[in-house]
Amino acid sequence: MHRHLIVSLGAGVAALVVVHARAAPVVIESVGLDKGNVTAQLERSSQYFVNAMRKLIVQSYREQYRAIRWEGLEETMTRSRVARFEYRFTLNGVDQVRVYHAMDGLPLSVIADDAFGGTTPRGSPTPPQSPGSLDGSSGSDIEETSATETFGAANDLVDADIGDDLLFDEFDSMNVRARVLPSSGSVLASYTAPGAQGGLDAEFKAMRTIENDIRAGVIPRGGRIRGAIGGATCGSCEDAMRRLSDEYSVDVRVSHMFGSIPSGEQRALIESGSARLKGRMLVGSEGEPLLARDVLDSARAAQIHRDLSPRALDRTFKGFSWRRRSFRLGPPRLPRVSEGSSTEDTAVSAEPSAAPGC
Question: What does the domain layout of the chain look like in residue ranges?
Answer without folding.
Answer: 3-258+291-325
